[in-house]
Amino acid sequence: MLGILPALIVIGVGVIFLLNNLNIPFLHDIWRYWPGILIAVGVAKMVDSPVSSGRIIGGILMGVGGLLLADNLGYLNLTWENCWPLILIGAGVLMLWSRLAPPRAGMPNVPSGAHEGVLNETAIFGGVERKVTTDDFRGGQCSAMFGGVGIDLRQAGIRGDSAVIDVTSMFGGVEFKVPTNWIVVGHVFALFGGFGNKTVQPSADMPGVKRLYIKGSAMFGGVEVKN
Fold it and tell me: Which of 32, 79, 163, 222 is in the most buried spot, having the most CB atoms within 10 Å?
């Protein structure tokens, strides 16, 4: 369904222009319904997407399209002054999804509790810098909201095969520095943000290679990993 959707949209727009040129009266007002395109695309992505991030995008498109359609039809009065809290609500939903969604196959659970090898860093309107040197790094959580977090793991070690970090970046940035023998696997959902993996990936059959999974979300912010 998703593959033929662009063609259907082009055909539909062409029909609208044709009928409008033929001076059919009710079509002069049909542009109020253009958010229906967003809703249709969102439904298609939710139905067809094989991954959770695609379904999240589909839900967002449906929600945005529904709000815009209600505004065009006069049921709502959408202005920046009224609607800016939606950004915070969206960020909270993404954080909940990241925290509560079950781990992917092969990915370990995010650790919790007080341990020198467990991250639990939060920066709100400020900055956090931490250097980890333990040989029993287990992963953890990092959040940056209107701030920045920097984690230096270059002298850390993983006793098991892998570790996982849950990261949330909203109007901020999170940076990780990792050893050269770690393979970084990113599963970060980015909405007006980005995830960058600038590490030099080692060969999977190299002795002592570990895997670091980084999952979470970046909303109007960024997450970067480098050596």
Answer: 163
Residues 130 and 40 in one domain: no
pTM score of the predicted model: 0.64
Q: How far apart are CA 47 and CA 63, in angstroms?
A: 15
- Does residue 139 sit in the same domain as residue 72? no
Q: Which residues contact 95 (CB under 8 A, 6 or more apart)?
A: 143, 168, 217
- Give residue-wise pLDDT tens across range 112-158: 667 888 998 988 888 999 999 999 999 998 988 889 999 999 999 99
Number of domains in the chain: 2
Full domain range(s) for residue 147: 118-226
**94 domain-assigned:** no
Q: What is the pLDDT of residues 17-47, one digit of tens each?
A: 776 677 665 555 667 777 877 787 777 767 7
Q: Concatenated DSSP letters for 165-200?
A: EEEEEESSEEEEE--TTEEEEEEEEEES-EEEE---
Q: Does residue 129 belong to any structural domain of this protein? A: yes
